[in-house]
């Protein structure tokens, strides 16, 4: 997933990343840029680097699960979710109306 950050955002959080020494806690800059408040909170609490990475991964998985939940309620065909179409057919033309189409008075 490619995310574009503004120069101000990137400069500010990259400087904070270096000042806090998050690299030595096992947090990548990319992870920190995605969730800066969560990373700083876990480091302030003095969590182990393994626990920090697991917590960040769990919070990403929970966010992803919010998008998956609506799919689980859809009907399935062959194990694949199938979304009902929300359109209606065009009305059928009567055969009697079709026979008079070319007739002239």
Would you summarize the structure shown here?
55% of the residues lie in helices and 4% in strands. By secondary structure, it is mainly α. A hairpin with a 2-residue loop joins strand 1 (76-77) and strand 2.
Kindly describe this structure.
With 105 residues, the chain is mainly alpha-helical. The chain has a domain at 1-71. Helices cover 55% and strands 4% of the residues. The chain is built from five helices and two strands. The chain has helices at 7-20, 29-34, 36-44, 49-72, 95-99; strands at residues 76-77, 80-81. Strands 1-2 form a two-stranded antiparallel sheet. The chain starts with 6 loop residues before the first helix and ends in a 6-residue tail after the last helix. The relative contact order is 0.08.
Query: Tell me, what's the shape?
Result: elongated
Q: How would a crystallographer describe the biggest sheet? A: 2 strands, antiparallel
Number of helices: 5
Radius of gyration: 28 Å
Query: On the 0-100 scale, what is the average pLDDT?
Result: 75
Strand order of the largest sheet: 1-2
Proportion in helices: 55-70%
The portion of residues forming beta strands comes to under 5%
Termini separation comes to: 67 Å
Strand elements, count? 2
Helix/strand structural class: mainly alpha
Order of helices and strands: HHHHEEH
Runs in which pLDDT lies below 50 for 5 or more consecutive residues are: none
């Amino acid at each position: 997933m490619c995310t574009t950050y503004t120069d101000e955002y990137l400069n500010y959080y990259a400087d904070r990343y270096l000042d806090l020494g998050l690299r030595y806690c096992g947090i990548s800059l990319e992870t920190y840029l995605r969730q800066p408040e969560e990373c700083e909170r876990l480091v302030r609490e003095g969590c182990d680097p393994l626990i920090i990475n697991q917590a960040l991964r769990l919070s990403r998985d929970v966010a992803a699960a919010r998008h998956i939940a609506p799919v689980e309620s859809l009907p399935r065909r062959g194990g694949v979710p199938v979304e009902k179409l929300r359109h209606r057919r065009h009305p059928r033309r009567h055969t009697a109306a079709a026979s008079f189409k070319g007739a002239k008075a």
